[in-house]
């Protein structure tokens, strides 16, 4: 029998809805306990300087193993 982690992070993938991600979590035996949004940066060169630009927000759920 495979031992599962007590907590696991689930990223909402490209082309996937939040609902689909939550269903995927439930299938793996996890319940959502926290939602986080993390910025995704892209480095570009402007006037000889490297600047970071936000291109999108990434949604991440933290799941707790269901007993």
Task: Write a structural description.
The chain is mainly beta and 67 residues long. The protein has one domain (7-65). It is built from one helix and three strands, in the order βαββ. The chain has one helix at 18-27; strands at residues 7-11, 30-46, 49-65. A three-stranded antiparallel beta sheet has the order 1-3-2, covered by helices on one side. Strand 2 and strand 3 (49-65) form a beta hairpin. The protein is elongated. The model has no long low-confidence stretch (mean pLDDT 93). It holds the Pfam family NETI. InterPro entries: NETI. This is NETI motif-containing protein.
SSE topology:
Elements: E1 7-11, H1 18-27, E2 30-46, E3 49-65
Antiparallel strand pairs: 1-3, 2-3
Task: List the defining traits of the structure above.
about 70 residues; mainly beta; 3-stranded antiparallel β-sheet; about 60% strand; elongated
